[in-house]
Design a protein that fits this description.
By secondary structure, this protein is α+β, with helices and mostly antiparallel strands. The protein has a single domain (about 1-140), classed as START domain (Alpha-D-Glucose-1,6-Bisphosphate, Chain A, domain 4, 2-Layer Sandwich). The protein is built from 2 helices and 7 strands, in the order βαββββββα. The chain is globular, with a radius of gyration of 15 Å.
Length: about 140
Amino acid sequence: MARAAATIDLPVSADQVWALIGGFGSLPDRLPYIPQSELSEGGRVRHLADPHGAAIVERLITFDHPGRSYSYAIVEAPFPVTEYLSTLRVKDADAGKSSRVEWSGQFTPKDVSDDEASTLFHGIYEDGLKALGKRLASKT
């Protein structure tokens, strides 16, 4: 099983960050390359499209509002992996004056090496967290 992870430290409280990213359907609020998210099954499944229009379907596995985290699995996507499970977590930092966002995943590569799959998702996580930082900076 391969893994990838990325983090970002932000100069806003964890509660402020969670208010923006804590909803399972909130990806368009922070990721410019995901223009819409449609929820189904009572908010447990999100239907997305990548920049090329390919379908991405993800299922919410766990949601911990007080702990500011959720985990999800990919049901359908154009990625070269199976058994994908990812967690997004927001933590307090600097006595609540700032926050750290962690995005990590594990998966089984399909027709690519562990390193290739890990590099792909590390890039997605890094780009997503940078976009989140820019989005929050524009709100302050």
